[in-house]
Amino acid sequence: xxxxIIVGMLTILLSGLWLCxxxxxxxxxxxxxxxxxxxGLLKAWPEGGxxxxxxxxxxxxxxxxPTIVDDRIFITGSDPANPKMEMLxxxxxxxxxxxxxxxxxxxxxxxxxxxxxxxxxxxxxxxEGHLFVITGAGVLVCVAEKDGRVAWKQNVxxxxxxxxxxxxxxxxxxxxxxxxxxxxxxxxxxxxxxxxKTGKVVWEAPPLQDRTGYVSPVLLKGQLIQxxxxxxxxxxxxxxxxxxxxxxxxxxxxxIADRGEINCNSVLVKGNQILVSNGYDHEAVMLELQPxxxxxxxxxxxxxxxxxxxxxxxxxxxxxxxxxxxxxxxxWMCVDWDTGKTLYNTPWDKLGKGQIIAADGMLYLxxxxxxxxxxxxxxxxxxxxxxxxxxxxxxxxxWAHLAIYDGILYLRRGNALAAYxxxx
Length: 424
Fold this sequence. Notes:
Shape: globular
Mean pLDDT: 93
Structural class: mainly beta
Oligomer: single chain
Largest sheet: 5 strands, mixed
Low-confidence stretches: 1-21
Number of strands: 33
Number of helices: 2
């Protein structure tokens, strides 16, 4: 019993290190689950849609979401003056630039814009925190929040002979327990922990002979749960020990050839359960972490639930998100968390699949075909759209995930970031 209490307390403490108060300090909110803090938010939007408080249009190319700390907004993009390099920009709450800094090399091949969302870790004193980003080329960079000074860099891809997928590195790195974690893939290490202050290597997790996915890791029971091209696996965040691995590619089902390894979605976690999902007709699999922490078992699979890269959310025992029909089309779904039963699988007018988050008892949808943004009720019986409007700012793909902080909804498309007041 004493050992169980100590383990439980350690898990809580390590989880707490992921976030700082109510700040929105990483990709998709608390532990990547797509659930954002907030209350008193609108339950319907004006008939003509929301109007932006401000728009900043000099981010450079990219698909990352903002990280918000004390009313400062941190976001990545390619450097407009030198697109071969990525850049981290800091804005104030009015959308005015405070500083920007080149981080490191961008991915030089297909889709070369910045991919990741910065991860923030507070310092010992207010204003002395740091942001951690990994570029598409696999360089991990630590940047001071105060002025954008680069504290240290580690070329993870080069040092570990990393094996990324076709579109480079796209994880938003995890940070906990005084460490920051990156997943190089390949034959040297599945994951590496670096000291947050110095950048020195703390541990190297065993290699899995697997390429990277495009996934940001999630914390569960003192483990980092990550998804590579083939395996889902758990790493002890204190020691780097490989606790278990699961061959997710074996559950590809009708997955289109060569697309079963394009994993983009962070897992959802609840209790001891882990939901793994991927697009392209790949089955979703619900795993259960065993009491030993050294193995997982399959609870159920669902062949319809295959979000491409828009993520899923769990709300009141139900899973909400979109699936993949082709790269331009997909339906919106609700699935029971406990059984894996599909409750509905329906199109949203003539629109497509997309991203989803939740806040204050409502769902926020951003479809990636035309850029329609919607507010919906989490109704397990039907897709229950309350309000919607087209997001026409910026350029290129509607792929960035939504973010909410202090009653403000943030939408990013390419070089443009817009802020919308959604408070009642």
